[in-house]
Amino acid sequence: MKELGPFNMKGLKENFADAQVSVVDCPDLTQEPFNFPAKGICGKPRIADVGGVPYLIPVVQKEKVYDLNTVAKDIELPGAFILGAGAASSKILGVNAELIPIVQTKSEKKPAVNGSYIAQINPADKGCLLEKYSSKYTDCEFGLLANLYASEGQPGKPPEFSACPLNTDEDVNNWLKFFEMKAPLICQPVIVSRDPGFDLRVEHTHCFSHHGEGGHYHQDTSPDSVQYLGYLLPAELLFRIDRPQETHLVGRD
Ligand SMILES: [Zn+2]
């Protein structure tokens, strides 16, 4: 076990009353509470920032559909185990939904295993509806945007797309539905320390749970008592795929 020095702790100490960082073995992710199709997040770690918020805001571009198997090839890691945060494919779902991607992409030897979740507004009670993607769909598609972490994986109608253009953060917040969720949540943050000018999303976190809640993480609602336990690996490479030609900074929270 290797302790990180005080320099590395600076940012954490500024944001958390108590923080500890150490290098440990990744827990077996095939076990509870994860139940992922791969054991770990190690081996050729890399990030893919695909599409972007400009494809959703101000006006949704429904033709923007991607496939995680193709992304795995694009980032030169076919068969990659992919985690992160993205939008569901509007071609498949027809409504706006958060995708919590957990996919062992296909390789020459094995077909893809899709352990993803989707979270959307429940048309029945307007609450949060979390479902296993594979309970309804068999593809590995997503739409509009995704922030993905890839490795070898070793050890109704809910609100439709906004009918009017979303021009400001206030417009976006009025359109989105916020829920206060119970712990524990299993979150999949993809974080970039700095954007060297690729129009990257520097933080994007989606979460799921075993109590029916999940979606896009916005912020702490109980900053005095919240606890985080994180297993993170620095990526060695970053790929920017289908970068929007026209961009803006609305809706990046
Ligand atoms: Zn999101």
UniProtKB/TrEMBL annotation:
Q: Where in the cell is it found?
A: Nucleus
Q: Which UniProt keywords apply?
A: Hydrolase, Metal-binding, Nucleus, Zinc
User: What SMART domains does this protein map onto?
Assistant: DUF1907
The record's principal subcellular location, in a coarse class, is nucleus
Q: Which GO terms describe its molecular function?
A: hydrolase activity, acting on ester bonds; zinc ion binding
The record's Gene Ontology cellular component field reads: nucleus
Note one Pfam family from the annotation.
DUF1907
Q: Which SUPFAM superfamilies match?
A: AF0104/ALDC/Ptd012-like (SSF117856)
Assembly and oligomerization: Monomer.
Protein's name according to its UniProt entry: Chromosome 11 open reading frame 54
Q: Which organism is it from?
A: Strix occidentalis caurina (northern spotted owl)
User: What are the leading ranks of the lineage?
Assistant: Eukaryota, Metazoa, Chordata, Craniata, Vertebrata
